[in-house]
Prior knowledge:
The complex is a heterodimer of chains A (471) and B (196).
Chain A (H helix, E strand, L loop, with lengths): L4 H7 L2 E3 L7 E4 L2 E4 L5 H10 L9 E4 L16 H17 L2 E3 L9 H7 L8 E4 L13 E4 L2 H10 L1 E4 L3 E8 L8 H12 L7 E6 L1 H4 L3 H9 L8 E3 L4 H7 L8 H12 L11 E6 L6 E3 L7 E3 L13 H14 L14 E4 L1 H4 L2 H11 L9 E4 L4 H9 L2 H8 L2 E2 L20 E4 L14 E4 L2 H10 L14
Parallel strand pairs in A: 3-4, 3-6, 4-5, 6-7, 9-10, 9-12, 10-11, 15-16, 15-18, 16-17, 18-19
Antiparallel strand pairs in A: 1-2, 2-8, 13-14
Chain B lengths: L5 E9 L6 H4 L19 H4 L9 H4 L3 E4 L11 H9 L3 E4 L4 H10 L2 E4 L2 H13 L4 E5 L4 E4 L2 E4 L4 H9 L3 H6 L2 H9 L11
Parallel strand pairs in B: 1-2, 2-3, 3-4
Antiparallel strand pairs in B: 1-5, 5-6, 6-7
Amino acid sequence: MAKTLAEKVWDAHLVRRGDGGEPDLLYIDLHLIHEVTSPQAFDGLRLSGRDVRRPDLTIATEDHNVPTTDIDQPIADLVSRTQVDTLRRNCHEFGIRLHSLGDVEQGIVHVVGPQLGLTQPGLTVVCGDSHTSTHGAFGALAFGIGTSEVEHVMATQTLPLTRPKTMAITVDGALRPGTTAKDVILAVIARIGTGGGQGYVLEYRGEAIRALSMEARMTVCNMSIEAGARAGMIAPDDTTFDYLCGRPHAPRGADWDTAVAYWRSLATDEDATYDAEVVLDAADVEPFVTWGTNPGQGLPLSAAVPDPEAMTDPSAKASAQRALAYMDLTPGTPMRDIRIDTVFLGSCTNGRIEDLRAAAEVVRGRTRHPHVRVLVVPGSERVRQAAVAEGLDAVFTEFGAEWRHAGCSMCLGMNPDQLAPGERSASTSNRNFEGRQGKGGRTHLVSPLVAAATAVRGTLSSPADLDPVPA
Amino acid sequence: MEPFTSHTGIGVPLRASDVDTDQIIPAVYLKRVTRTGFEDGLFAAWRADPHFVLNVPAYSAGSVLVAGPDFGTGSSREHAVWALKDYGFRAVLSSRFADIFRGNAGKQGLVAAQLEQTDIEQLWKILETAPGTPVTVDLADRLVHCAEFTCGFAIDDYTRWRLMAGLDDIGLTLRHAEDITAFEAHRESWRPRTLA
């Protein structure tokens, strides 16, 4: 029977097919762990006298809480320090590999897995973090889980799961210059809504997706959860294999050839069908920004703040009214006129080397707008080192940006990197929820290109809005 | 897990859609390493507003939350479920739940009951007209009762069975330990390992 990519990976991991309404039992190939959603799971194991079944399929890193400055000092926030210390003790006790602050492999869990070559096509990957969908860019079935499920995977290396439906998101044609993977995914979410993907695994397809680099594909899959889908996938191809080849945990020699042959077989069969299909034309995608307090409330940068009175759906209207009050925005204001206080470049959505390169190219030789604070936070220590080797750190610091160490940072403000009440950001992260980046903070989600141009002009902007760099 | 058959408690009308998990419990409350004591983080930002529904005395002892569509979107934090439970909620009613939240609720004995939006609107009207009205969530019959109003709700059969029996998921899976071992015996040797 013809199958989709998601169905092939699902079926290859069936430990036991559920009968009589019972869920299927799926084997998990890779379990990623961080300090926030794991302590209660380790406690659960201890209470029930259970062990971690496969420490060799488990890896941990410190990312959510960690400071991005003075990382050689003890963590100043005592509660954060306790949580990080708890992870260290737990990993030691259960024999789990951990990349701690200061380690060259430390960083955001969704940046670390791919760069180590642990994330591979056809795997099942889970983590107690909803942005685990990132790993779907390799053709893995990857999704976020809660702490009870973290404990379940630790104890059994499996999860009971109900088979999801499949949705194809086809992006035809070619992206226009100045538009990026971030603009594509923001446009997708605006189209299908924050609940549109609930119950589905998304598969991104089409010419525009095939043309994306691995890092750009990760940006797209990362935000699948913002459309309500637990997982988003892209079929593996030569771009995937080129990225993986030679990475520390990629197969080698004859194993590599066996693996690639298997990976090629994972693409959706030509006559397979999806439960739902959405088609976008890449040529219609413009630089996209959000105006509201959920990631579906987005518009092209060329548009103006919408008028809730013009909305027909009562739920959307109420949500928009509430969002505009929180964001302190007036309908009809051109998005380009919105003044920004802080630009945040980083996160598991846009904290990889290509993101830093793209932003550096925009700010190189230009001057930061005096009222804008700019934070550049690499997604991992490896990304940071690569950027330093290319001289990007100097570009950012000469521009007037703060060049930081790796972590989740201002994406969710669990560490000191937060917005003050009323402060407004242009952020390359993934969520513009009320208070997400700090209590009372206001977030506009943007691409790295828009973030960089905004840092120059002081209002939401794209590179096309900038004056040429003086010779 | 404590078995759940039926629960009756004060209904709390939360007239909002897209109640994301950052609203249910902001990230700053996630730093604890315990599994209890998260009630102070529940809707922390909204509770600063004296007019927020849980600050109204008639609703403050509520245990059945009646919310708008797309409840629990965003982060995978199970702390959102713990915060609701620690506050005293036993059930959340909504016309649409985020997948991860729904799963987390089921693991922790919090009933996530899916109603038609028109039924949610009806419940909001009753609870706002007569604050403090109890709502009964009958899991056995999949029915919600509130004053003279009754409606059905959806919840998947397996979750309902597990909630009613109060069963531990890991224990259920370990009944199939032999199947897991058999699966592992056939896994490709080139699949990645994190340890040397």
